[in-house]
Amino acid sequence: MIDSISVIGGKDKDGAAEAIPLLDIRAGEILAVVGTTGSGKSMLIADIEQWADGETPSQRRILINQMPAGEFADDRVLRGMAAEVSQNMNFVMDMSVKDFLNLHACSRHLEQAEMLAEQVLNYANRLSGEPIGSQDKLTVLSGGQSRALMVADVALISDAPVVLLDELENAGIDRLAALKGLALQNKIVVLVTHDPMLALLADRRVVMKNGGMFKLHSTTPEEKLLLKKLEQSNRQISFWREQLRLGFTVNEEALKQY
Amino acid sequence: MRFIIVSGPPSAGKTAVMIHTIRHLLKDGIKVAACKIDCLKTSDDDNYRALGIPVAVGLSEYLCPDHFFAANLEEIYAWGSYHGAEILILETAGLCHRCAPAVQGCQSICVIDNLSGIDTPQKVGPMLSTADVVLISKGDVVSQAEREVFRQRVEMANPDAAVLSVNGLNGQGSLKLKKIIMESASVNRIEGQELRCSMPAAICSYCTGETMIGSSYQMGNVKKVDFGKFEKMRSKEPLPSSDV
User: Fold this and answer.
1) How close, in Å, is residue B80 to chain A by CA atoms?
2) Which among A108, A130, A158 is the end of a domain?
3) What angle do CA A206, A90, A55 make, to 5 degrees?
């Protein structure tokens, strides 16, 4: 059981010590990782994913429950502790969704694989705009469908206590629902994002700069209030998007109806 | 000298991962030499040369690359020693899936990639099952689920190997691999060491340059497909005997 993970700061791109020397993340917390392109966001996620022990270019060390990850002697146990969904991932296996989910569940020696596969599919369909069928081939799923299925699968079958999400916003899925679904299960969620809504939905955000952890903010009550406004504007943008996607024209009248 | 033998299917990322790893070794002031064995052509030696280390290339050309590999190990070892290498990297390419270049006393590394299909760990055969270290590359472009399933298949094919995820593009995992290489034992003499898996026999007319198709052109060690009893009974003419 993981109660917390800690990132012990290493070096930034110039070899200077990171401004944040220690970052503790507790179970049930959502931590956003923000920063400009090339600031080191994905590297931070990669360090956590491989349980860095000073051997990566950043020289960071990751602790699990205050213990160095290296002390978890069995590498196979350690590996199951983090699961990732990133913008670059694709399904490459030539299989139906159902068969694949079964295969994944069996590979983790989970019981009632078929039932679990069905749950994943249901959850994925809540996240995805377009319905996913159990007989659909993995490789023909759209970007949005794939990402929805990956999130659902990571949450229910991989069931890792640490979930790493890299730029989910491009995925075309209901990302807020995805995030809330994951966080509810008492997991540690670390998400790299450029999306202000996701950043503010997180409990805290670490700001990356020049390869190092630069600042750490807790989301303020005022920011949480502003988030509501942002969500309102977002609904408006979504409405416009849907209008255009469905082939309608946009005019003053349509906007009033909304 | 530590003698590290690297193998794996084409385009799995063998050279890319080794380049990153050698860079880490060189940073620590360790002397490295690299040799590349291939069939007809290679340009990987340029990549190794760019590191400023001694590089050798062996092309098997008209010979079976596996046999060529085994027949040259002693000379490659001597070449590495001559250059004062503390670590000799031998990258093999073009070996068939019946073969494994693993040798007792040498650390054997097999590189396979996540994109190559779910059955690949089984298909690769002894190259993977006799390896000390299995590197899985290209995990960044497939789903978490596929990574997990693929890795499980690798562990089924070789339960004893250290299995490591690597990324040949950004070098992720290469520092860990360096550590594993440094922990491996030196080998003082390659002569008298044993291949972990015997090589396939093939002394037939095609070995000596025959190009014509048909039983009458075939001599020596020839094996035929067994189509099963039922098929044999149905066919009007008896199929050629599978006897050698």
Assistant:
1) 28
2) A158
3) 45
